[in-house]
């Protein structure tokens, strides 16, 4: 008998996205541009994070009509975002048959204490994390893919670098611990011992690890891959740049050839201006950072 | 040049995009000298090539952008085997690289919610033994039509999902993620046979 929605099938789709770029798109036309540029998937949302940040207010799941139009426009997988803890939005997205749900800090959280029970769904979930403990908590709730949170909508890679380094460095540390130390470390990480042991044994997360939050240039994409990301999410960085089509192609090329600086140089040349970008210190002074949503 | 009989097989996995790392791990477990292929130069000296699962539009565009098609074609024409899985099956078909006389239908089994695992029986001609293979079909294609020279080694609900023509083997599912290495072992057996064939021809 065929079996559906096994954890292997959920992580399996994320495995197929490795080495690729998942791009934020707000309508069918942008989705077609992303697909033509070589995106391996698109994230359908009404406003890119830079605009959410600028507009303020409550950011919610996107209009289902817009998601339907994007699904109809491309053949690559379509992801969509639900608010942290908002399992009813996730239920709606599952009925809509999106290919992946991002339980995302970019939207306004719906629950201050609980993330969605992702094992309760057939559709797979990706979740953001700022450190290893957070990644392992999300995996223990059923996330089939982890991405750094970074600081979405800033065009500033510094936060994603911090998050990736914490996750990959934390995994290297787990590999060096003995059984008793692992138990203590699990307490420290606030993550189930079973998941901690599994990661220590594998030397990597049991699910794919991508980068998100702040990628604006081909060199950013190469940097995150060299730091251990297995693929990249690019939000505002594409459609807030001077030439989205070329920027999209260039980021795709740099993600594949991340280890070859000559190719990254070629991809970076004559691109036009990237998105403007923000200093994190200025944002922190102004109010909440998106990455502080969720726990 | 590919190695002499007896040396470790060199198998390249196209790493433009997709789950190439899982293929490399499985091939290494089988004793191959496996590596990632991103440039035409990476194809030289390979005994076999794997075109992995991923997004077929992304992989096709990368093949074109990176000038990989002539090198893949040269590998093919030298009689060196190729395995295409899922997106890789699509990339090998008539409408893409044309390495196998068949037409794949993208996402034929549906979107992610329709992805499934099943025990799949292979035709004895495949030579992988009677035990069914645990097959993971993820947004998987099937074969809509194929030429007379194409062997159908397995079908699911009447649709061909494992096919072979000469030195090209293609499957709709992902043998690299379910831990059953028999499809990869079959590719390696085809690569060994190709090596012996070349050595024989050289000796003539």
Question: Could you describe the 3D structure shown?
Answer:
The complex is a heterodimer of chains A (295) and B (204). Chain A has 295 residues and is of the alpha/beta class. Chain A has 14 helices and nine strands. In chain A, strand 6, helix 6 and strand 7 (145-148) form a beta-alpha-beta unit. With 204 residues, chain B is an alpha/beta fold. Chain B has a single domain (10-202), classed as Rossmann fold. Chain B contains five helices and eleven strands. Chain B has helices spanning 20-29, 56-65, 69-77, 87-92, 182-203, and strands at 10-14, 33-37, 48-51, 82-85, 102-105, 116-120, 133-137, 142-146, 151-156, 159-165, 168-171. In chain B, the strands form three sheets. In chain B, strands 2-1-3-4-11-10-9 form a seven-stranded mixed sheet, sandwiched between helices. In chain B, strands 5-8 form a two-stranded antiparallel sheet. The relative contact order of chain B is 0.18. The mean pLDDT of chain B is 96. Strand 1 of chain A pairs antiparallel with strand 6 (116-120) of chain B, so a sheet runs across the interface.
């Amino acid at each position: 008998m065929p079996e559906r929605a096994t954890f292997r099938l959920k992580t399996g789709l994320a495995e197929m996205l490795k080495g690729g770029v998942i791009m934020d798109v707000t309508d069918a036309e942008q989705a077609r541009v992303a697909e033509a540029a070589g995106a391996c998937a698109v994230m359908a949302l009404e406003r890119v994070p830079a605009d959410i940040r600028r507009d303020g207010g409550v950011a919610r799941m996107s209009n289902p009509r817009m998601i339907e139009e994007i699904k109809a426009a491309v053949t690559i997988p379509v992801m969509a975002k639900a608010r942290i803890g908002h399992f009813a939005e996730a239920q709606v997205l599952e009925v809509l048959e999106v290919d992946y749900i991002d339980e995302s800090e970019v939207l306004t959280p719906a629950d201050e204490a609980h993330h969605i029970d992702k094992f309760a769904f057939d559709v797979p979930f990706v979740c953001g994390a700022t450190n290893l403990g957070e990644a392992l908590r999300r995996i223990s709730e059923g996330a089939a893919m982890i991405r750094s949170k970074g600081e979405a909508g800033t065009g500033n890679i510094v936060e994603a670098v911090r998050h990736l380094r914490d996750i990959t460095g934390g995994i290297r540390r787990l590999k060096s611990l003995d059984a008793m130390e692992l138990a203590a470390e699990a307490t420290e990480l606030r993550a189930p011992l079973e998941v901690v042991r599994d990661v220590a044994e594998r030397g990597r997360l049991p699910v794919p690890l991508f980068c998100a939050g702040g990628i604006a240039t081909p060199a950013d994409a190469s940097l995150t891959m060299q730091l251990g990301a297995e693929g990249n999410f690019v939000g505002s960085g594409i459609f807030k740049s001077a030439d989205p089509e070329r920027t999209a192609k260039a980021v795709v090329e740099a993600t594949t050839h991340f280890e070859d600086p000559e190719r990254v140089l070629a991809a970076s040349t004559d691109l036009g201006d990237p998105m403007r970008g923000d200093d994190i210190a200025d944002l922190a002074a102004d109010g909440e950072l998106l990455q502080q949503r969720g726990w | 040049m590919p190695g002499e009989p007896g040396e470790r097989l060199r198998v390249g996995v196209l790493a433009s995009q997709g789950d190439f790392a899982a293929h490399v791990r499985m091939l290494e477990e089988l004793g191959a000298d496996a590596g990632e292929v991103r440039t035409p130069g990476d194809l030289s000296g390979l005994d076999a090539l794997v075109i992995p699962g991923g997004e077929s539009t992304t992989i096709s565009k990368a093949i074109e952008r990176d000038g990989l098609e002539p090198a893949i074609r040269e590998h093919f024409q030298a009689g060196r085997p190729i395995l295409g899985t899922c997106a890789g099956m699509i990339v090998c078909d008539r409408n893409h690289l044309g390495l196998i006389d068949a037409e794949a239908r993208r996402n034929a089994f549906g979107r992610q919610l329709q992805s499934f695992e099943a025990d799949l029986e292979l035709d004895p001609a495949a030579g992988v033994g009677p035990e069914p293979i645990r097959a993971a079909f993820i947004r998987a294609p099937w074969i809509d039509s194929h030429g007379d020279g194409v062997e159908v080694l397995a079908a699911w609900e009447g649709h061909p999902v494992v096919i072979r023509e000469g030195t090209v083997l293609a499957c709709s599912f992902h043998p690299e993620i379910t831990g059953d290495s028999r499809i990869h072992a079959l590719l390696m057996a085809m690569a060994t046979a190709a090596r012996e064939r070349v050595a024989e021809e050289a000796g003539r």
